[in-house]
Amino acid sequence: MGKVAYRIRNWKSYNRALINRGNLTLWVSEDAVATWYAARGPQGRGRAFTYSNACIELALTLRVLFRFPLRATQGFLEGFMTLMKLDLKVPCYSQLSRRAGELQVQLSRQPKSGKLDLVVDSTGLKVYGEGEWKMRTHGKQRRRTWRKYHVAVDPDTHEVVAVELTESNHHDCRQMKPLLAGQKNVGQVYADGAYTHPQSFNAIADVGGRPVIPVRTGTCIAKGEISAGLQLRNQLIRDRRTLGGKKAWKKAAGYHRRSLVETHMFRLKTILGSQLHSRCFKNQIVEARLMAAILNKMTTQGMPESFVK
User: Fold this and answer.
1) Angle between helices 281-301 and 260-271 (to 10 degrees)
2) In this structure, what DSSP letter does residue 222 have?
3) How many CA atoms lie within 13 A of 193 on its CB side?
4) What average pLDDT does the segment 220-248 reach?
């Protein structure tokens, strides 16, 4: 079979959404300007913050969006305030660095009714080290450091529901529970074979979800007093046997919907890059959440409605 050709049905509105991604008025709202300075509360030990968390988050969002160094972020904001004739001071790069790790970045999403399906996976984001061309041509000569970006995406809206950042030696199955923590009305949870661990199934059972995970060939049905997660895994094994194999089960269960999380990772690395620029781990966590929040905001502006040509 040849490559499937797709056409976009809503090209006019989607084209406008792509243009708006670079529009500063989309990212710098009037609310952010109105709450630029921190509110003065009861005085305790130490000096009170000059700038609000909204101000710091806005500055770091622009940094991630346009891939600025911290000093260039400060210069960009200073020039923006001058052009807009706003009498607002700008936080310096050292303030942005110090306060980045304390931010609580919220992932805004469109309201949704009904069951919340999720697709879960992870990918690597480089911190520092030699590039792929150098590695392929001359081999490894310096240490390379990565972080694992774990994400849960709504396959219906392509929005990020939850994101976790860990060191590269953390297994994927350990992050299923924090990704699903606090989620309500969960439906089906799609994931690949890396999540065929009891921890993953128990985490899905805790939120009332139903796993769509390909259990490894040869896995036996657990017997005796077993957890709710292993009961879900047993049902997957029975379904696969009833349908006559893994290939038929994948088609019947709609497992290939899981590939939509790969689409998210492609968008992440194409639009925002595959590298984290912060050096402190807690700052890297905030940077990863900002990347997810930026993609969510772009998604709300408009997504393509594709159909086969």
Assistant:
1) 110
2) P
3) 7
4) 92
